[in-house]
Amino acid sequence: MFNWAKQTLANVAGTQEPEYGPTAILSVAEQAKEVPYTEITSADLKWTALDSTCVETQVFYLSSETGPTAFVQVIYNNVAGIRTTCQFNTKIFYVQDENKETLWSSTPLKDHEFSEDMQSFYATDCAVELSEDGTHYTIKSHTDDNAVVNLTVTRSCPGFQIGKDGRTLFGTDLENPWGSMRHVFWPRCVASGTITTKADGPIDFTGSHTQFIHALQGMKPHHLASRWNFANFQGKDHSAVLMQFITPPSYGSTVVTVGGVVKDGEIIFAGTDATATHIAATEDGENEWPEPTQIKYTWAGTAKDGSKVEAVLEGALEERLDRIDVMAEVPGFVKKIAGSVAGTKPFIYQYFPRHTKLSLKLKQGDAPEVSEPGLLFAEATFIS
User: Fold this and answer.
1) What is the three-class DSSP state of 334?
2) H or E segment at 4?
3) Which helix (H) or strand (E) holds 233?
4) Among 62, 137, 188, 289, which is least packed by CB within 10 angstroms?
5) Is 8 part of any domain?
């Protein structure tokens, strides 16, 4: 079949794209060669809300030393410019009580809109607002009586994006790309407030280490990436974030990794010189994906004083928190078509090692190595 016909079918049905090769992607790593990262302002936190196919999200990850860990998320999803839906998700992992089931709440939102400056999101019984000074978000949702959210998340160091604008571009004419990927980070924040459930009443997340990520996938997600790795490390003094995706063969199976290491009040370094490696894995008997059991994340870069910095986080992931069949609620015949034609069977594996804390090892210049234990929330996603 001609490539144009394949592309037309892919645009309409979401099937596999032709192989354009690595020249059809401009990784954000090219920007990072000149500007490893930029500190962001409120203007960088605007919702894009594309009127074409996209998935745009804001996610707040809350990690606690003594209680549950959780995340709350707003999703804006546009399908081919024909239909737009929004969703509010809440997930609570009871990591201190392995016998207690994870709480999952996912509710469609009605009458969504954005503030005039596009920095805040609203829908019926839901609001995610950026403060006027750009230092904190308030997240309120009463869309589900079993997960009533009333949180404030305040950044404790600057946020960043990789390169000048954080964007990886896709297309055969990169001056006029047909798609993009972008991530913006507040890697180290502190939360206050509660999530109220029917079973537990108000769960206090005040003091929880928190990370905020605003992400835009500016075309069909399974066309952008075939696999993902994500790490959110929160220690007493340092935080680290790593986000990696691998494109399908249509874009040369290109690996794009972004991340950085920070402490209160300061970005130590950030950029694209980072890796995510599954040191050991076991085959999932249900879907044949190689579920990781041990991982190694690395970061390298240059601090503001010119010194070289390296960081490593390595160890066992322990028993997974959850395995998510992304297509579980899709009708069977659609799932069959997606699996056979597009080659997609997306599963997300989530981890939070709770018995033995992993340690971030940080070496900066001639200073002694710092080894800091902390909380790791990790995801490994397999799509196609």
Assistant:
1) helix
2) helix 3-13
3) strand 227-235
4) 289
5) no
C-alpha 308 chain-centroid distance: 27
Please name the residue that has the structure tokens 């690595």.
22
Cα 68 off chain centre by = 20
- At residue 38, φ and ψ (nearest 5 deg) are -130, 140
B/e letters for 212-228, b = 16+ CB within 10 Å, e = fewer, are bbbbbbbbbbbbbbbbb
Question: How far is 192 from 139, CA to CA, in rounded Å?
Answer: 10
C-alpha closest to that of 185 among 16, 317, 351, 299: 299
DSSP secondary structure string, 174-222? TTS-SEEEEEEEEEEEEEEEEEEETTTEEEE-TT-EEEEEEEEE-S-HH
9 belongs to a structural domain: no
Tokens of 36: 């490893």
Burial bucket for residue 14 (CB in 10 Å: 0-12, 13-18, 19+): buried
Q: Where are the beta strands (DSSP E) in 218-321?
A: 227-235, 238-246, 255-263, 266-271, 274-283, 290-302, 308-316
Closest CA to 254 of 4, 30, 6: 30
Q: 315, 343 in Cβ contact below 8 A?
A: no
Q: In sequence order, what are the residues at sequence separation of 6 or more whose Cβ sits closer than 8 angstroms to the Cβ of residue 57?
A: 73, 74, 75, 76, 213, 214, 215
Indicate the pTM of the whole model. Answer: 0.92
Domain that includes residue 317, residue range:
19-382
Strand 160-162 with 148-155, pairing: unpaired
What are the respective helix, strand and coil percentages of the chain, to the nearest 5? 10, 50, 40
Domain with residue 281: its CATH number is 2.40.370.10
Q: Please report, for the chain, how many H helices and E strands are present, in that order.
A: 4, 27
**What's the number of domains the chain is made of?**
1
